Amino acid sequence: MSDQHSDSPTCVGVPSGVPTTASEIARLVKFSEVSAVSVVDAYLRRIEAFESDVHAFNLVTAETARASAQRIDAEIAAGRNPGPLAGVPIALKDNLCTRAVATTCSSRILDGWEPPYDATVIERLRAAGAVFVGKTNLDEFAMGSSTENSAFGPTLNPHDLTRVSGGSSGGSAAAVAAGFATVSLGSDTGGSIRQPAALCGVVGVKPTYGTVSRYGLVAFASSLDQIGPFSTTVRDAAEVLQIISGHDERDSTSIPQGRLDLVSVLERGVEGLRIGRISDLPGGADPEIESRLEEAFDALRAAGATIVDVSLPSMTYALTAYYLIAPAEASSNLARYDGVRYGLRVDAADTNAMYAATREAGFGDEVKRRIMLGTYALSAGYYDAYYGKALKVRRLISDDFDRAYRSVDVIVTPTSPVVAFPVGSKVDDPLSMYLCDIYTIPTNLAGHPAMSVPFGTGEAGLPVGIQILAPTLGEQTMFRVGAELERRATERFPGGR
Amino acid sequence: MSPDAVRKVAKLARLDLSSQEVDTMTRQLAGMLDHFADIDSLDLAAVEPMTQPYPLVNVLRDDVVRPGLDRDEVLSQAPHAQDGRFQVPPIIGLDS
Questions:
Q1: Which of A130, A183, A456, B74 could form a disulfide with A85 if both were Cys (CB 3.0 to 4.6 A apart)?
Q2: B87 in any annotated domain
Q3: Are the CB atoms for A325 and B59 separated by under 8 Å?
Q4: CA-to-CA distance for B92 and B90, rounded, in angstroms?
Q5: What is the CATH classification number for the domain harbouring B2?
């Protein structure tokens, strides 16, 4: 329990009596110093105690989690290598396909659907010995910044249960912050990993586009979507990302290269690195978040890095480009929900009427809004004015980054302009919700990696995240800076990160 | 953005919006498009559109037979299936 902020109810914490980082769990399980079953049971006990307060999950798979843990313990007893994530409890965003386990995308339209295959990331984590504890809540089809657009109700912030968890991967962020899982996976199209990580006080990483296979990730905006981890430590994020990264022939946008090598660089520090500070960063961040950002620059300077001003003049147009491109791609991707092959069907006299009735009943307000916006932006007579222009603005933003990375190794910004906001405070104003993503969106447009690391607190003692941006495949440098910020945060903000 | 335009787009998107949804959507989409006018001031004539982060290339796998998804498992998830196929309402012979 955290006592640093007001009297709002909280349930931040970790299970007691067992190790609580992926690297410790895997090591102790491997050497039979702790059983995988005892670890998963400790996490399941926390879920039982606090899940009804948080609502991080759409489904808790307690029985299969115990069975997996027993299998891992049996393999170890038989002398076999249990894998680098042996016994690590992992929660999965509910837009990742899990064979014969309900996958809803927090939408009524996938009611009752059990995928006939596993996503590539699921196969890789299972082969590494991970134990899946459940499927986490999200904004419907990952469209949102607060997890309030879920058909099953919002996920609340473990640091203050009257506030949102962020989104769209709010359930995955909250599950880690509440100690329901050691790590979790989310997906990030415009900030959907980094923003909830910042609001829930955990680490969240969106890797370079093409680094992690999207096979089995339910598509939202295919040129922007990327899977990544949440964790309490930078090292755990590195361990998990290493395992899920690497080429997959089932994703045609997968970069043909091996796994990322990240854990080996974490202790290298930032001596000699050039850290970019965006001189024309779009305004609007809370003053306390700006203070934390300045302290982050101070900390990195103290650690031997140089802070260099860079200019990204097109960044201010990123929101417009994103909210035309992502809905356009979504309107195409979501055409598949037609009541024919899976999920909900509302019967009608002919096929066209069945499509329209099914989609009207199955999709929530935000999904309909984005399908409408995207269909409009792609429609005859408006394509050039909206979608075509947005693609050109995307190029300008990407070019701005390319210029900036000639003089710096990484760029550091706030992750979110605000700390976790009260439930219900932005739901009636879509534009104010979209502005939550102002610092995270440009990365997705460029296809670059970015991560959010907890760095102190802001208003009402709520977590603040600092974002590290890097050029294509710049994950090693990004993780070096992330690890340094984590070390400095521990020194500067003792008792809470 | 007019209610008629919203109804036309809804038809293209196969969404059977209620009249209240049409009103809300008209107002909200108009507000968004106003905000999105910020890019109208940019000179984009010489800018190449960017459709995805990497140069697009065709990715082909070796042309060898391999098993696909199990048909019965896939069809078990369909709202209606018959004779090993997805079943849908009538498609032809209607004028909509």
A1: A130
A2: no
A3: no
A4: 6
A5: 1.10.20
> Looking at chain A from residue 397 to 456, which residues have their Cβ under 8 Å from any Cβ of chain B?
398, 430-431, 445-447
A393 contacts B53? CB cut-off 8 A? no
Q: In the 8-state DSSP scheme, what is residue A203?
A: E
What range defines the domain where residue B30 resides?
Answer: 1-38
CA atoms within 13 A on the CB side of A294: 7
A398 has catalytic annotation: no
Structural domain tally of chain B? 1
Nearest to A200 by CA among A489, A463, A485: A463
What are the angstrom distances between the C-alpha of B70 and each of A119, A213, A237, A249, A339? 16, 22, 35, 20, 20
Mean pLDDT, consecutive 10-residue stretches, chain A (497 aa), reads 58 95 97 97 98 98 98 97 97 98 98 96 98 98 97 98 98 98 98 98 98 98 98 98 96 94 98 97 91 97 98 96 98 98 96 96 97 96 94 98 98 97 92 91 98 95 97 98 97 73
The answer as to whether B25 is a domain residue is yes
B68 within a domain of the structure (yes/no): no
All residues of chain B having their beta carbon less than 8 Å from the beta carbon of residue A372 are 6, 9-10, 13, 15, 25, 29
Closest chain A residue by Cα to residue B47 = A392
Rounded-to-10 torsion of CA A466, A471, A477, A483: 20
* Over residues B32-51, mean pLDDT: 94
Beta-bridge mates of residue A160: A157
**B15 lies in some domain:** yes
| CATH 3.90.1300.10 residue window(s) in chain A | 22-313+397-492
Nearest Cα residue in chain B from A359: B15
Instruction: Answer yes or no: A168 catalytic.
Output: yes
User: Yes or no: is domain A22-313+397-492 CATH 1.10.1240.10?
Assistant: no
